Amino acid sequence: MTGKMQTIELPWYETRIENCSYCGKMIARNYWADDDYPADKFCEPACADVKRRALAKAE
Question: pLDDT digits over 1-55, tens only?
Fold first, then answer.
């Protein structure tokens, strides 16, 4: 599992809400950007790992 924590840089008045691509939990400021899933934002590295295992099991 490779990736890094990223920070969402938004002005204080922005009302857009980001959610974890796997579990749906609201992401307030920091999210996990996984190298295997560049289009997804995860609330924590564990969600990316669970998605990885679920997709591997489905194949």
Answer: 799 999 999 898 999 899 999 999 999 899 999 999 999 999 999 999 999 999 9
Number of neighbouring beta carbons within 10 Å of residue 10: 11
Q: Where are the alpha helices (DSSP H) in the chain?
A: 45-58
Q: How far is CA 12 from the centre of its chain?
A: 21
DSSP letter at 45?
H
Structure tokens at 47: 């969600």
* Cα 18 from Cα 28, distance rounded (Å): 7
Longest Cα–Cα distance of the chain, Å, equals: 43
Number of residues in the chain: 59
Whole-prediction pTM: 0.86
